[in-house]
Amino acid sequence: MIPQIHKQGSHTPGLLYYLYGKGTHEEHVDPHLVASFDGMSPDPGRDPTATKKDLAQLLDQPLHLLAADQRPDKHVWHCSVRAAPDDPILTDDQWADIARRIVAATGIDPHDGAGCRWAAVRHADDHIHIVATLVREDGRRPNHHRSGKRAQAEARLIEKKLGLRQVAPGDGTAAKRPTSAERHKAERQGRERTAREELRETVRRAVAGARSDEEFFDRLAAAGLLIRKRAAPSGDLLGYKVALPDDVNKDGEPVFYPGARLAPDLSLPRIRERWSGEAEDARAVRREDAARTGPASPAAARRGTASAAWQAVLIVEHGEDPVVAAHIAAAGEVLDALAKTSAAHTRRELRDAATAFERASRSHVRAVRGHDRALRQAARDLVQGGPALGRGEDGATTAMAIDMLFFLITAAAHWHARKGHAQQAEAAARAAEHLRTAYQVASAQPLGALYQRGRRLSRPMLQRQSALLREALPELAGQILAEPGWYALAATIAQAEAAGHDPAALLSDVAARRELGTADSISDVLVWRMRRTADLPADASHLPETGTAGNRSATRATTTSPSTSGRRHNAADTTRPTR
User: Fold this and answer.
1) Residue 378, C-beta contacts closer than 8 angstroms, at least 6 positions apart
2) Residue 242 and which of 13, 54, 80, 526 are 20 to 30 A apart at CA?
3) What are phi and psi of 540, to 5 degrees?
4) Residue 68 Cα distances to 9, 64, 71, 231, 324, angstroms
5) For 332-341, what is the mean pLDDT?
């Protein structure tokens, strides 16, 4: 349940005419009174003898008992209270009780015998509007300081009482929600999202890995947005606005949104903070750029992303708060870049992950930029590497990158939870679930190929690798050997050994560096960690066999299938995948 305190107004009849009218897009249905200060106020919606003017005069009566020079200019208090989309439809009596609790909690009518006059109007299933006159019956002004926070606190209690969805308390760092007018406009135009939401995502993607104003605005233009820049008399750039070419107002003019109205961290000064930290280390940045002969391939960019995410987990778990905040924000850039450049079968889930994590990328902990350069470089490489195929090395390294990012986003959720950032922690957890689903799809083919290779290994080699696993990871070996993914791990161990690595040392190293408790399949995680650390090809489908049991065994093994469910498979099923 979300209460929202609107700007104070000066014309009670005007607000009532809107609430009892058809709405901007005729979305108001059956407007009527559900509660009022005295329980007997006239209802212009259902009483044919009552008018909106009658209700306005009744509400404003205390105002007119004051001398003209003592009346407040802005005397109209307006609060909307909206249920969550998945909440049940509440009755009028329930909404009436909610209205009474909200006006009491906010100080509008604290039940002290001399509160303000108010009325609650319902014109939709999912919300009400409360209108009040900010003069008490005794002529004094109400104590409604911080009424927004007080309304939010009361809403949390109402949710518990009525069994509604528990909304995490906000901290003022969330992006502005689309207005009802914007939502109805999008519906009328057949858009899946509002213009505000489309612009926010496009601007976020343009920021990902950018290093200058020029590069940022070039990306916005390439995305097809209309851009207006605001400059000082000196010519210095101060800000910007963006618009969709086909989103126009009633006069046919484009509707522009300033960056700060899209999200708090999308204003030009806040965007510049992202590359200001790199500017302080410009020499290292130039060395990195000089070392690159051209844009990274999609597969190489994803390997770099996996490595950067791997290192960032440790920082998020143990770093100082400002540095952690910078890495979490940069992780959002990586998700945006990965969603933009990934194949169609994973793009939707990755986009949803990036959209969910957008809320987790901001908090009141101010980020100290510069230390997050590895993640921002990963985002830059993803963008410059271009679209990836959904198969081969591109597809396999996508699964590898998603696997590492899952642990990074999960670590971010834990950090936010420790800091009491409820909305951010919830957003990060939702993003992790989208990554989990994307991983299942992305990993199906490469893990399937590795599974088949593992099934074709000779029995002596499998026995030797089982013994090696028990020696290297004695506490985890039993669980890993019971997982269907063990065969993919066995194939990876064999390839690492053939490449000259010490498999026991490699296993111990990759298992010890990061936690494995959040993994549903430890073997899957170890596969990607080993292949990244040992620099093995992520896609093993075209590599020569190592230590196979012969063609007869290979043919027999093709009747079985790997666990392609990534993190959600049934560990007891060793022959068929689950999805």
Assistant:
1) 209, 301, 304, 305, 307, 308, 309, 334, 337
2) 80
3) -100, 10
4) 17, 8, 6, 44, 55
5) 96
